Amino acid sequence: MTTTFDQLASRILDGTPATADDALAVLRAPDDALLDVVAAAGRLRRRHFGNTVKVNYLVNLKSGLCPENCNYCSQALGSTADILKYKWLDTDEALAQAAAGLRGGATRVCMVSSGRGPTNKDVDRVADMVGAIKAENPQVEICACLGLLKDGQAERLRDAGVDAYNHNINTAESHHDTIVQTHTYADRVDTVTKVKAAGLSPCSGLIAGLGETDEQLVEALFALKALESDSIPVNFLMPFDGTPYENTWELSPTRCLKILAMARFVCPDKEIRIAGGREMHLRSLQALALNVANSIFLGDYLTSEGQAAEADLEMIRDNGFVVLGAETEPGPDGANSQHTPTARRRGAGTAALPNA
Ligand code: SF4
C-alpha cells in the first residue's frame, strides 16, 4: 500500500526519520496533492515550533567587491548587476540598522559581509559591533555571516557574543563545482564544522533553482542534516541581470513549497527559514508556506528588496501565527501554545537596508 504524506508525518513523529526516497516523493508530489503535503509537513512544524514564526533581520555590513565567483551572486567577481557596493559600514550605522530591525519585531540580527572570508581585523570590527548591540539589547540573537573562517575566528566571534554563524553549503557536493570555482564544497563544510566545534549555532542552507536535479536537492538536505545545521535558510534563486544565471527560471510557487516541505520532512525539528527569493518565487503561496517553514527574513535582503516589513508582519498575524519572542515566550520544545495576536507592532516598516 502506498504511504500517504500524513502517514509519513506520523512515522517521523514516532521517531523514524524520512529517507531519501521519502524526500523525493515530497518533491515530486503532484500539485493536486499540495495541500496534503502542507498539512502533513505542518504537523511536524507545529510539533516543534507551535504557531511561532522567527523573524530575522539582515544588516549588510559590506556589499559587493567580492573576489569569489559564485555564479548566482550579484556581488561576485565579474557580476555586472546593478547593486550598491561599499566597504564596511561604520559601527554607528550598523547599530542603527540593527535597532531598526529589532523595532520591527526581529529577534535575530544577521550581520553579513561579502567576501571570501574575514581578516582578523574584520573579525575584531564585527566583534566590537556585536558587543555594542548586545550591550543595548542583551536578549537579541546575533548571527554572523562573514564567509570562510580561519582557525580561531569562530572562537573570537563566540567570545564577543555572537550566537550563530551562517555559511550555506548552497547546493549538493555533486553540483557545487558548476556554481562556483574559486572555493570548494569542502571549504564550505570546513567552516560549518569550525562553527559547530566552537559552540556557535550552525546556520547553513541552500539555494534552489541552480540547475540541480531533484536528487541533488535531496543530497543537499541530507548533507545539512548530517552537518547538524540548526537553522536552514532555503533560498530560491533570484536571477540577477549581469550574472551567469540571469536567464535561469526553473522554479514555480508550488515547486518552492514542496522544497520547503521536503526540508521539513528531512529535518523536522530544525529552523526552516524562507530566505531570498520568497516574494519572487512563492508569490501568493508565501502565507501557505508559513505552515511548513517557521522562520523568515523581515523586509529586504542583501542586494534586493523584500516586501515591506509591515506586510510581512501582517501576513504572519493574518494566518494565525505569532512572532517568536514578540509577546509570548515559546513553550517546551520551541512551541508557543498561545494564539496571541501580534498586532500593535512598533515601528515596523521603518527599517531599510542600503540595498539596490
Ligand atoms: S556568495 Fe559570498 S563569497 Fe560568493 S560571490 Fe557572493 S559575496 Fe562573494
UniProtKB/TrEMBL annotation:
CDD domains: Radical_SAM. The keyword Ion transport does not apply. Residues 327-356 are annotated as: Disordered. One of its GO terms (molecular function) is 4 iron, 4 sulfur cluster binding. Its cofactor is [4Fe-4S] cluster; [2Fe-2S] cluster. [4Fe-4S] cluster binds at C66, C70, C73. PROSITE patterns: RADICAL_SAM. Transmembrane segments: none annotated. Pfam families: BATS, Radical_SAM. It is an enzyme of class 2 (transferase). It comes from the Bacteria. It catalyses: (4R,5S)-dethiobiotin + (sulfur carrier)-SH + 2 reduced [2Fe-2S]-[ferredoxin] + 2 S-adenosyl-L-methionine = (sulfur carrier)-H + biotin + 2 5'-deoxyadenosine + 2 L-methionine + 2 oxidized [2Fe-2S]-[ferredoxin]. GO terms for biological process: biotin biosynthetic process. [2Fe-2S] cluster binds at C110, C143, C203, R273. Keywords: 2Fe-2S, 4Fe-4S, Biotin biosynthesis, Iron, Iron-sulfur, Metal-binding, S-adenosyl-L-methionine, Transferase. Residues 51-275 form the Radical SAM core domain. Pathway: Cofactor biosynthesis; biotin biosynthesis; biotin from 7,8-diaminononanoate: step 2/2. Belongs to the radical SAM superfamily. Biotin synthase family. Catalyzes the conversion of dethiobiotin (DTB) to biotin by the insertion of a sulfur atom into dethiobiotin via a radical-based mechanism. HAMAP family: BioB (MF_01694). Homodimer. This is Biotin synthase. It comes from Nocardioides szechwanensis.
